[in-house]
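Appendix B, example 12.
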Amino acid sequence: MVKLIADEGQVNSLDAVLDSQHGTAQQGNIQKSTIQQGALQKTTMMTVYLAYAEEAQRQHYLSLQVSYGTTLYEALAQAGWLTEFEGLEKWCEEVADIVTPTAKRWHVGIYAQKQPLSYLLQPFDRIEVYRSLNADPMSQRKSKSRG
């Protein structure tokens, strides 16, 4: 069963979608019979967030409405971040076919967990774009400890 919270107008819209896909609808809850969950989800939108700290003093945060089934890459493109941030689009093209993120070269994730560009977004996911480090963290700690 797919459970949705919706007002009366939204339920009527969903009824029409279900009828067009040979599904069944009941007052207060919607049952999935012959339709696939993906078909219903494509008709609804969800909110995701994008975060990027270009520099310590320059941060970007965006709330974005996307369709269910949207990938991490598609959300970056829809937000315009592939063209806005130099190098991000090129990096995405280089790693587009990689399914398992690598520790050192990966620049995107969801809630601090590195994810492939093909990751299917969930409602309220926070897409994080990571910048390259200016220096090796171990070297920085050593130089700080020396004074």
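The mean pLDDT is 73. Residues 8-20 form the longest helix (13 residues).
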